[in-house]
Amino acid sequence: MIIVIINILDLILHCFEKDIYMRSPQYSVPTTLALVISSLLAPNAFAEESEQDTETMIVRSTAEEALKQQPGVSIITAEDIAKQPPVNDLSDIIRKMPGVNLTGNSASGSRGNNRQIDIRGMGPENTLILIDGVPVTSRNAVRYSWRGERDTRGDSNWVPAEMVERIEVLRGPAAARYGSGAAGGVVNIITKRPTNTWHGSLSFFTNQPENNKEGTTNRANFNLSGPLAGEALTMRLYGNINKTEPDAWDINHAQNGSYAAGREGVRNKDINALLSWKMTPQQILDFSYAYSRQGNIYAGDTQYSNGNLSPNGLVDSLYGHETNRLYRQSWGLTYNGLWDWGQSKAGVYYEKTNNTRLQEGSTGRVEGMINSEDYATSRLESWRTTSEFNVPFFWLADQTLTLEWNGTMISSTTRHRCRPLTATARLSLGPRATLRNAVPKTAPPSPVSIWKIISKPCPAPT
After folding, report:
1. Parallel/antiparallel/unpaired status of strands 343-360 and 233-244
2. Statement to judge: residues 221 and 292 lie in one domain
3. How far does CA 192 lie from the centroid of its chain?
4. Where is the TonB-dependent receptor plug domain positioned along the sequence (predicted)?
5. What is the pLDDT of residue 429?
């Protein structure tokens, strides 16, 4: 545009020098300037006319998708899950969200066959898993090695994908809102509520890899939901059973030296029941119970050494057998209330996990390698009571006050017994993270003060 203007000015000066406009009465100075200005404005006029003739296109899904993926928060709805290929573990769906990855718990990559959810590179130890807003801590029943990893699959496989209403992924430090273990982020798995009409389904899933050295997966689950006494008393029951075969022991075989083990198999059984009492349209009391059993199918992982891979070695004899199993039970009583002044939530929860596994080495090169045919059991018990009050002040900010007490007892048949207690009070000033219809309405809360009392901590079990 600058070059065009300079050329036009040169043309005007040239006209003055040749005295063209003086000899021709048809071209005066105002006429020449008018022609120049009109030539500059003409393209804009044509462009404006062209814009008016352009057909308007409206994309209706963009706004909703933008809200579901706003900074720091991602929402995965049941509709999103239905559009994707079936999966056996929710972590395979959650990993597709921004800032989320599946990783081991150490930079060395050990125990990489049991990959867990990692948010923003903070590691699984700083990623808190919730089911219906309640922390799930079964993974903590597994020994935390001195290199910084646990031989566990995490807590994302307790709920089948068909029973998920939505998954909320909160990235970034959330310890002030959800307590310890949430420095990297939070994954909240929301299950489907009981229905007012009887509904049930039976689902089957199978995964058959092209390579016969990779383990196959088969899964079956059911769910039943309906009213027991009109809309006042409803129930929901679902169960799940699945099995994934281990990879072949020589899937990563090398001619010389050590080689990586394949992915180990898993057997998983789950049963979950929920009884919901709607005392009034604004007052709901829920009682929940869940039982799960999860066991591995050994694929030869020795973590750091292949020393027992001889035909008569311990590792060779254990291939294809179960070397560790988790038994998890949980009870919960939750009250939700809606008032003129805001919302309230209170709950009492108990979780017990028994971790039974063959004994392993705990130091040096043999750390993590099975060295005995004797089993040891670690038991993790957790009690939690919590109360939450959300009071909106639209002229200033929403107020969220959370009072929480939780206790944990860790015991082992071979090592120690410990009982840590924690009391916490949290006050958050700012908009609440209200997620309705799978679309976050506001940003996560911004805590301004935290008060916490912690008694004697416990080391991890062995």
Report:
1. unpaired
2. yes
3. 17
4. 72-186
5. 52
